[in-house]
Amino acid sequence: MKRLTTLLLSVVAIAGLSGCQKDAEQAAVAAPQQTFKWKLVTSWPKNFPGLGTAPERFATMVNDMSAGRLQIKVYGAGELVPALQVFDAVSQGTAEMGHSGAYYWKGKAAAAQFFTSVPFGLTAQEMNGWIQYGGGQQLWEEVYAPFNLLPLPGGNTGVQMGGWFNKEINSVSDLEGLKMRIPGLGGEVLARAGGTPVTLPGGEIFTSLQTGAIDATEWVGPYNDLAFGLYKVAKHYYYPGWHEPGSMMEFVINKTAFEKLPKDLQAIVRVATKAINEDMLAEYTTRNQAALTELKEKHGVDVRAFPDDVLSKLQVLSEQVVAEVSAADPLAQKVYNSYKNYRDQVKAYHAVSEQAYINARD
Amino acid sequence: MKRLTTLLLSVVAIAGLSGCQKDAEQAAVAAPQQTFKWKLVTSWPKNFPGLGTAPERFATMVNDMSAGRLQIKVYGAGELVPALQVFDAVSQGTAEMGHSGAYYWKGKAAAAQFFTSVPFGLTAQEMNGWIQYGGGQQLWEEVYAPFNLLPLPGGNTGVQMGGWFNKEINSVSDLEGLKMRIPGLGGEVLARAGGTPVTLPGGEIFTSLQTGAIDATEWVGPYNDLAFGLYKVAKHYYYPGWHEPGSMMEFVINKTAFEKLPKDLQAIVRVATKAINEDMLAEYTTRNQAALTELKEKHGVDVRAFPDDVLSKLQVLSEQVVAEVSAADPLAQKVYNSYKNYRDQVKAYHAVSEQAYINARD
């Protein structure tokens, strides 16, 4: 209010000397209320449930909070850049911002794999704790700094499902020769268990399972899996998703673009990402439970647990894989040390809180 | 930008007719960039760890995002109004906003008890799902509408601890005659198990336990309990906190004050509450685990689980108490039906996700 009054008075004072019209326009040009237009590229189909609706909500929040001073246009995968070029596009400034998953960028920085989800790693609640109060954010910024990127949490799917199988998994030996669509660290673990991990984009999963080109696939959880119709081409739906126990999405922001924003718009962007990080997990928790009920009751899906000895074997192999990946890169090792230390402590805490409570209640 | 330019041009146009100075002042008064100053009253000591730091962070976020156009001053309990008059003060407009816990207002509206935590009820993640995507928010607004209040989630402590005891709890009979500081629904459950619930403000707990005036107390969790020094005056630290499995704090906003804000400031307030709701749980998760380690390793605290049969009995009694409280009030019954339906479904989902995963990992 004060600033505007001063501005108006100064305009008028000058106008009194040299004519109102011209100086008013000059003052308006110098005003701080500049409008910014940003492009936000994503790795998801436009408005894909959960993953794709989150950046749309983010853009709406920012637009509303800034009264239109920061307008963000969201692009689905392939609209401006391909799904897996989000990191490069934002790093180079083709887009000011992106929404994706850090583990896609392991080729750029091995340490990036710790900032989405790790086999037998942190849950959503634990991940938020590590990132925000356990030193994770600082490490993440260090990993992305060479790319001129500021990373921020962008939502979480919660614990994913183990996947869709056309073969029963009754023992570790049933994993041998299993052709399964499972990317990243989870795929490497499967390979060590004797399986054959396959990387396929989402759009090819259904047909590959139908034709028998693959024996199994993981995707996300009931909400997204129901939308894909995977229950039509697979016999068994296994749990839990040991390979992705709480996948955190990411916002990446081009630092040069961010620094051009006034402080209030910077704060608006930061706070909106926190709100989205909270919102996505709430949405998945609710939609997943409704979808699971529909899968079981309407589609008669056979939902079953991996046997304990299979999970134990996968956990041993996971620890080996993650330790080896970390040992090969000094920054990955630094991140892993922090992550592992947090996980060990939080396990002890959850043994007396979340885990103890849910086991007592259910 | 356009708006300001138009404003300046119109000021100047009028000035051309009748003199710049006077009309500029009138236009400034009508300008949209008004500054608002709000009071935010809380039920916590000023800057109390977690509960009290959250509203301070909220005020900072709002100030930063609004470039000082909405300035919020936070008051600790008793500074402007007593801890348990937050609801009334905001309802009547003494303060524009408050930060507290809904279950304190059961005397105003029985249904309010469902919006903090319920014995054997929802965890933090589940509560966020119910409130935001399961119909909880709409019901909460209905409960608070007669009081001219808009409620919004304001953080979560996660699963609390069962409490500090100077007597071992080895069977249900050990609860008989137990004098324990435990308010609300949890206290009613203890009473039905033969105990004597006592209501005491936080500041009197330590001495009451030390003198033997009470045999036991619950408070929050390791982070807050360590700060209170309760380990010095109690022998055993029990888990889990069956009575408060995920206590959601609340922001309450005077609706008349809220409606006076321009749309962008309204959006800023709403989004900042979501960010705080996410932030507090991350903070508690991290600080609780560090505090638990300190309690065990530095202070040698005996951390132990309630026996299974004690938890089973408390669960049966809890279901009875909650059903009876609901049956006595139509709106409480409506809220309970929604809450219970959500809990039953989410239990089924967590059996294959969070619960299955944590049990496999740990």
TrEMBL record, chains A, B:
Protein's UniProt keywords contain Signal: yes
SUPFAM superfamilies xrefs: Periplasmic binding protein-like II
Keyword 4Fe-4S: no
Gene3D superfamilies to which the protein is assigned, alphabetical: Bacterial extracellular solute-binding protein, family 7 (3.40.190.170), Periplasmic binding protein-like II (3.40.190.10)
Family matches, as InterPro entries: DctP_fam (IPR018389), SBP_TakP-like (IPR026289), TRAP_DctP_sf (IPR038404)
Keywords annotated in UniProt: Signal
Identification of the protein by name: TRAP transporter substrate-binding protein
Taxonomic source organism: Thalassolituus hydrocarboniclasticus
